[in-house]
UniProtKB/TrEMBL annotation:
Protein name, UniProt field: AcrR family transcriptional regulator
Residue ranges annotated for the HTH tetR-type domain, each copy included: 6-66
Listed GO MF terms: DNA binding
Annotation: DNA-binding region: 29-48
Pfam families attached to this UniProt entry: TetR_HI_0893_C, TetR_N
PROSITE patterns in alphabetical order: HTH_TETR_1 (PS01081), HTH_TETR_2 (PS50977)
Alphabetical list of InterPro entries matching this protein: DNA-bd_HTH_TetR-type_CS, Homeodomain-like_sf, HTH-type_Tx_Regulator, HTH_TetR, Tet_transcr_reg_TetR-rel_C_sf, TetR-like_HI_0893_C
Family annotation (SUPFAM superfamilies): Homeodomain-like, Tetracyclin repressor-like, C-terminal domain
Keywords assigned: DNA-binding
Length: 190
């Protein structure tokens, strides 16, 4: 039996992300992915039994990576607003630098391809975000509204800024970043 090569998995994931950004989840086939990755379709099936398995694996890996990056440099001992800004900026930078992944994740959230098991893993990965907002609520710095709703607002603001920046081909200025953060903070603060 042939051992799986981690580099091939990366190539497959990169190819899938690129194709989903161009054609959407339902518009791609295993043949499209193998051609884009530069591997034989049969080889692709060594790694994934089908498109559903590949999409779920890529979703889980992308979600785990985005959460890990979001909390880089965040410390519970840091004053809340500064820590919140660290996470907010990490999310913004990540989404700007990994736009194809952003498009992919957004499509997956609303897709029948994603299994309940994968969705449950995504919910578990989201716990640090809920903890962050709940910390702010406990410190009476964040509104005492539904945590999920507050996160939806925060992520939605970041997502729209990233899409606007990407599709306009403009460079995002520090002034615009600071203003967007301030608007988000002002909307969430108690």
């Amino acid at each position: 039996m042939k051992l799986k090569d981690d580099r091939k998995v990366e190539l497959i994931f990169e190819a899938a992300l690129k194709l989903v950004a161009k054609k959407g989840l339902s518009g791609i086939t295993m043949g499209d992915i193998s051609r884009e990755a530069g591997i034989a379709t049969g080889t692709l099936y060594v790694y994934f039994t089908g498109k559903d398995e590949l999409i779920n694996a890529l979703f889980a890996a992308s979600r785990a990576n985005s959460v890990q990056v979001a909390f880089r440099g965040y410390e519970l001992t840091t004053p809340f607003k500064l820590g919140f800004r660290t996470v907010w900026m990490n999310i913004l930078r990540y989404k700007l630098q990994h736009f194809e992944e952003v498009v992919f994740l957004e499509q997956c959230y609303h897709s029948p391809y994603i299994t309940e098991e994968t969705r449950e893993k995504a919910r578990e990965l989201a716990v640090p975000f809920f903890d962050l907002i709940e910390r702010g609520q406990q410190e009476m710095l964040i509104k005492t509204a539904d945590t999920g709703l507050l996160l939806t607002f925060m992520m939605g603001a970041i997502n729209e800024l990233v899409k606007q920046t990407h599709y306009s081909n403009e460079t995002l200025s520090k002034k615009k970043i600071d203003l967007t953060f301030d608007l988000c903070w002002d909307a969430l603060k108690a």
